Amino acid sequence: MKPNMREGHEGTGPGAITPDGCAVELYARLRVRDEPEIIAAAVPPGAHILELGCGTGRVTHALLERGFTVTAVDESAQMLERVRGARTICGPIEELDLDETFDVVMLASFLVHTGDPEVRRALLRACARHVAKDGQVLIQREGEDWHTNVPRERVDPAGYTVRIVSSEPVGQGVNAVHAEYVFPDAIWTQTFRSRPLTKEEFEAALAEEGLAVDEYLTEDRVWVRVVREEAARTQTP
Ligand SMILES: C[S@@+](CC[C@H](N)C(=O)[O-])C[C@H]1O[C@@H](n2cnc3c(N)ncnc32)[C@H](O)[C@@H]1O
């Protein structure tokens, strides 16, 4: 049965397709890249991380190996079935209300660029709701030229190609992005909605939910450490 797809999202490929258009079987073959190093350098050792939109555990497993504890959340049960060694929670991030807080909340995979501003607010609110008073939110943003530098592709050393085929405006500041993941024996295609956000727009979206940038962690400003606004104010310069 086809799951309820998120608006503007589509996916083709073998096996289950998630509401945001990921082909679970092929997603499980994607290699982890530099994400664990960036995260480990940014947060306290051994922290308890709430990972929002964990997928098959591509990053989760590497974090567990580094001694972090992870609570992994995803709305796709088929994705979560592949996560090992972490507590898993199935459901939309927007509705997550665990009545507990975490040292680190992670919203990666560019989810903050979701097309619908109401959904974005709900995602950031979920981050704010679950981060400890002195905790951190790690966010992965899109790079600045991601919607203009198209088409582009990357051949992964593991033997697959990731191709961003197009990014076309669909109105109200939102683009429809078409991506292809080409494996020797199978292809997954995904169309998703993305709202480019300047640094200023991103920071304004954080402020709406009482969050503020602590530090841009990478030169391209893709990875960001965010804290509660009150924690940002009390920090010594
Ligand atoms: C592109 S995958 C990334 C998975 C993982 N973060 C990684 O880097 O390997 C996006 C995942 O987020 C999940 N997802 C997207 N939006 C979601 C939402 N609003 N609530 C819960 N899960 C969501 C999808 O089901 C999918 O598994």
Automatic annotation (TrEMBL):
It comes from the Bacteria. It holds the Pfam family Methyltransf_25. Residues 49-135 form the Methyltransferase domain. GO terms for biological process: methylation. Keywords: Methyltransferase, S-adenosyl-L-methionine, Transferase. GO terms for molecular function: methyltransferase activity. SUPFAM superfamilies: S-adenosyl-L-methionine-dependent methyltransferases (SSF53335). InterPro entries: Methyltransf_25, SAM-dependent_MTases_sf. This is Methyltransferase. It comes from Streptomyces mangrovisoli.
